[in-house]
Amino acid sequence: MLELPTDLPADLAPLSWLIGVWEGTGVIEYTADGHRFEGEFTHRVSFSHDGAGYLNYSATGWMAAAEGESSVALVAESGFWRLSRPAIAADPGPALLPPIESTPARTVDDVEQLRADSGGFPIEVSLAHSDGTLELYLGEINGPRIDIATDAIVRGAGGKEYGAASRMYGLVEGHLLWAWDIAALGSELASHASARLAKV
């Protein structure tokens, strides 16, 4: 049974089912630049909160190793997941700037006003990868399903070519299932990896 926290800011209510640590395995299948990438990997994802109106996110992945070999670290990423809404004077930032005014805490009614015609809520996800890549995803959370796609990708001058991505997350029978499509190394947007994770 999935237990949802009750002490969350109202803006986190639609995202609350993500909170916790999830672990499992997945598969990589992608062809780019004349090379076929495939194999099984182990994945660990953590969603947490510190009382603010966003979720902290971190994830790591390792390629399963053949007997007698060391596993290969694939990626570590960290970032923030939040409902997409206009900033108000009571929000801190940018940088270390404090809020300009104080207002009552946001309520469920405030959050409900963000609901889209589709029935879901717009979200934004900002991620930093261990290889120096930065991604900004925009999308929607609708109950136990999340669909996001990159609005921007930033990489250093020496980074590998990476043009676009989309991700889908879903809660199915108590497991977090996800799929990640990418356009990279000269290939069009296509399925790249997927996994099934259990809460630990």
TrEMBL record:
Family membership noted in the UniProt record: Belongs to the nitrobindin family.
| Record's catalysed reaction(s) | peroxynitrite = nitrate
Give the residue spans that cross the bilayer. none
Name of the protein this chain belongs to: Peroxynitrite isomerase
Xref: HAMAP family? nitrobindin (MF_01297)
Pathway where it operates: Nitrogen metabolism
What residue stretches are annotated with the THAP4-like heme-binding domain? 11-199
Binding-site residues for heme b, renumbered to this chain: K160, H192
Q: PANTHER family given for it?
A: PEROXYNITRITE ISOMERASE THAP4 (PTHR15854:SF4), THAP4 PROTEIN (PTHR15854)
- Pfam families this protein is in? THAP4_heme-bd
Enzyme Commission code: 5.99.-.-
* Cofactor binding comment, as recorded: Binds 1 heme b group per subunit, that coordinates a highly solvent-exposed Fe(III) atom.
Q: What are the required cofactors?
A: heme b
| Organism per entry | Microbacterium profundi
Sequence motif: GXWXGXG, positions: 20-26
Role according to the record = Heme-binding protein able to scavenge peroxynitrite and to protect free L-tyrosine against peroxynitrite-mediated nitration, by acting as a peroxynitrite isomerase that converts peroxynitrite to nitrate. Therefore, this protein likely plays a role in peroxynitrite sensing and in the detoxification of reactive nitrogen and oxygen species (RNS and ROS, respectively). Is able to bind nitric oxide (NO) in vitro, but may act as a sensor of peroxynitrite levels in vivo.
Q: Does the keyword Heme apply?
A: yes
Q: Which residues form the signal peptide?
A: none
- Indicate the enzyme's highest-level EC class: isomerase
